[in-house]
Task: structure prediction
Amino acid sequence: MNMSVSAKEVFELHPQATVLTIDFFDTLITRSVAQPTHVFAVMEEELCRRFGRRWHGFAVQRVESEHTARRSAARTNAQRDVNFAEIISELSALMGLSEQDRKMVAELEAETEVSLATAIRFGADVAEYALSEGMKVVVVSDNYMSSNHIANMAHAVGLTWVQQANVIVSSEHGAMKHNGTLWDVVLQRLQVDPALILHVGDDALADGEIPAKRGIVTYINNHMRQSHRHMMNTSPAVLPFSRMEAHIRNTTVGREADALESVSALVAMIVAAQIVDARGVLAQREVAGVHFVARDGFLAHSVWESLRKTGWDLPEASYFSFSRSVVWRAGIQIVDESTMAKFIGDDEELTVPRLERRLGCSLKSTIDPSATISAATARQILVANSDNILAASAQLRERMLGYLETQGLLAHGHHVVVDLGWTGSSIADLAKIVSEATNGKSVIEGRLTGLYWDAWPQRVRVALHGFAMDDFHTVDDNLRLLGILNLLEVVVTAPHGSVVGYGDAASGFAPQYVTTLVELDAYSQVVGAVSSRAAQTAEEILNGVHVSGVNATDITGASVWAAMMQVGHTPRAEEIALMGILRHISAIDHEGDGNALVLAAPSQPRKRNDSFTHGVFDALMHGHWLQGTLRDWSCETASATLVSDIERLFPFTHPQWVTV
Amino acid sequence: MRTYERPILLARAIASVQNQTYRDWTLVIVNNGGNPGPVEDVVRVAKSATPCGNIQVLHLSERVGMEEASNRGLAATQSEFFAIHDDDDSWISTFLEVALEGIRAHPTAAAVVTGVNRIHELYRDGKVRPERAENFFLNQERLTYEGMIGNNTFPPIAALFRRRLLDDIGGFDSTLPVLGDWEFNLRAVLSGGFVFIPERLANYHTRTPDSEVSSGNSITVGINLHHEVRRQLQNRWLSEPSVNGVNKGALSIASYVEELPPVGPGALQKIAAGIKNPRRGALGVARRVRRIISR
Result:
C-alpha cells in the first residue's frame, strides 16, 4: 500500500463512514527500533547497565515468556489474548525473578515502550482528519498491555485525543482481532451499522479480512511491517542496525527503495567498522602504513580519504590492488599436481587458452584449443609446462614487488592491511612475500572484517584480527558467516574488476584488471547504488550525524555481526528480490558467468532422501547465498519442505541466530 | 598456558587471549620441552599485533608433567587471579571480563566457572576444522565438593581462580600425569566454593578420532591413563583419615559415575531407531534412556 495516499483521500474512498476504528501499533504508533521485540533488547541493555550481566539474555527470554504465556492461555481458551501480568509471571518463572525484580521489570517495560514510541504520520493524520470531521474515533488493538498504557504511549507522542475510554484492547476483553472475537466486542460497544465503520490497520487478516466479513469497511497500510524479521533475533547487539532500519522504514516509500536502503545500511556498518578498527590500531601503536585492499576495501578507503579531507587526523592510506589470483601465481616455487591443484577446481571444465590466461603464460599442448578438458588433464598440462609457469611466476612476483613498493608496503615497519578477508590466507601469503623481500623488516597485520575458523592455521604466519566476526564464535555462527559470504563479496566491492597482473616498470607496475559483464551489470543495477549510499551513511555514522542516532561508538564486532545476520541470515522478501538478480564470480581467473546469488529451487525426486538434501545444501553453501536462497524457497509450498529438511539436517540454517 | 609441539593450536590459543575485552592480563606460555623455534615464531607473529597484555615465554629444557608446567608458569606471575588455558582450548572474547566481574562479586569464592561449549574438531595436515559443537553439561551442583568428588566435571579452560588459593592449599600436584586439575579443584572448592556463570564463554576443543594423534587431548588419547590415575588418587584418599566420618576416597568411589560419550542432538533419533528396530535390543534402549535422564 502506498504511503503517499493522504488521510483525506482515504475518507474520499469511504464517504459513508461515520466512525473510525484504528489499529494502534504500526498504524498510529511505532517504535524507534525496527521490530516490536527490539524493545526488549533496549531493556536488556539498560538492565545490564544498571545491574550487571545477570540480565544477559533477558530479551530472548522475554520473547520466549510471551510465547509460553500464549500457549498456556490457548490451552484454557483459544480465543483470548494474554495480558501483561501473565507474561511477566512466565518471565519470572523462566528467569527466577524475585518479587522486586518482577515489579522493576514490569515498570521498565512500560517506561521503555513509552520512551521509544513514535507517531506514524499517516495514522495520526487519518485520526485527526476523522476528528476534525466530527467522527467518533476508537483505537482497536490486539495487545497484552492495558488501555491505560496505550493511552500513555499515545500521549507521549502528542496524540492527546486517545483516552482510555476510547481504546478497546484484546488483553482487557478476553478476545482478539485475529480470531474475530474482539470485533464482536467492538460492534457491541459501538452499536452502529458495521457499514458505517471504517477501520484502518496494518494486518491484512486481523485488520482486513476478518472485520470485512462482519461488514466493516477496511483500509490496510502495511508499510510499517516491512522492517519485521524473525522475532527471536533480539539482543542489544542488533539495536544499531535496528535503529537504522526503523529510520529507513519511516522515511522510504516503496519496497524496492526500502531494500536498497537496508542493504546499504549493512554495507555502511561494515565500512564504518573497517575504519573504526584501523583507527583503533593507530591509537595503539606506531604504524608504518595503513592499506586498504582491493576490492573489499574500496569503499572504506574512499570514506577514509573523505574524512581526511574534512579534517580528521588520519594518515594517508593506500588502496592497493591485490587478489588471491596474483598472490597464488606470484608464490609458485614448485610445479606439481599438488601445488597446481588450487588453480583448478575439481568440477571445472577448461580449455588450454583459458588455462594460459589463468596462469599468465603460454602452455605447450597438443590438445585442440577449443576442446574442453577435465581438471585432471588440465593439471597434467600445467605440470608438463613447469618451466614456463615458474618463469611467469618469477616475473609476476618481481612486478608485484615493484607495485607493492609504489604503494609503500615495503617500507620498513608495521603495516596494517584492511580487508574483508575470510580465511586470511591471501593476507598471510602477502605477508610472507613482503617479509622475504624486506628480510623481515616489514611486518603485516591483517585486520579482517570477516573471519572464520579456517583462519586458525594462518595465525602462525600473520597476525590476524577479526572485527565483525572471529573464529572463536560458535561453529554455528562460523557456518552462518560462510553461508552469506557470497552475498557480502558481491555487495562490498569496487567499481573495477579484480587484479590479474601488473604492468612492467615503464608503466609504474600498473595493476591490470579483468572486467566481466556480470560484475559490470551487478554494479550498474544494484551495487553502485548500494555503494554510494553506504559510503555516505558510513561517513555520517563516523561523524556522529546519522539521523538514526547511530554513531561510531555503536560500531562494535557484535553490532556489525548482528547487522550481517539480520540481512544475510534473515533477509526480507524485498532484499531477496533485489539481490536475487545478481550473480557472483568465484573462479580464480574471474571468467565465466558465475553463479546466481539466489538459486532457483531444484526439481525434486519423488522420494527425497538425506543424500539429495545434503547435495543441495553443499551446492548452496559453496556457490550461492545459502540463507537468501532458503528463505526464498520457504515461501513456495513446493520447495518449503526441502527447506525444512535442510533446517533439520543443518540446524544452524534456522532463522533464529540469537541464542542464550 | 602449557604447550608442546602444537604451534597451530598454540597460535589459536594465544589469539583467544589477545581477543579478550579485558586487556590487563599476563600470559605465561610454558613450552614444555618442545622445540623453542616454532613457539618463538608463533609468539613473535602474535605479539606483532597486540599492544595490550603481556606475553612471556618459559622454555623448559626437558619435558615435565602438565601440572609441574602449570606450577612453573604460575611462579612466574604475581596476578590476583589466574586461569589455566590449555594450548588447544579457547575463550569467547568476554570470558575474562565476565569471569572477573563474577569473582569480584563473590569475595569469598575460590573460583568462578563459566558455561562451556564442547567443540569436536578434525586436525589434519596442519588444519583444524570444527565438525560439531555441543553444550558441555555443567551446573552449580556439579561445582560443589559432592558434585566433583566422583568425577572431573569441567575442563580447566572454564575456570578463573583466586591466587590466594596457591598459598592456602598449595599448587598443582606435580606427581600426577593427568587429572591434576581435578585433584586441585577438590582442594580448592573446600577453600571458598566455586561460583557458576551459565554463559558459555569457554570453548573446550577435542579432536575427533580421525585426527592426527599428536594433536589429541589427554582425555581422548589417554583414557586408560585417566582411569588408572583416578584409581591411584582414590587409593591415596582411602588411606587418608576420615573427616566427620567420611573418607574422601570412599566417597569418590561411591560417587563415581561411568564416563559416557556425550549425548548429542542425534541421541533421541538413535533411541527412536532402536525402538523401531527391536533387534537392537530393548535393554540397550532402556539403558540409553536411563543414562540421558541421569545426566
Notes: Chain A has 25 helices and 16 strands. The first helix of chain A runs from residue 7 to 13.
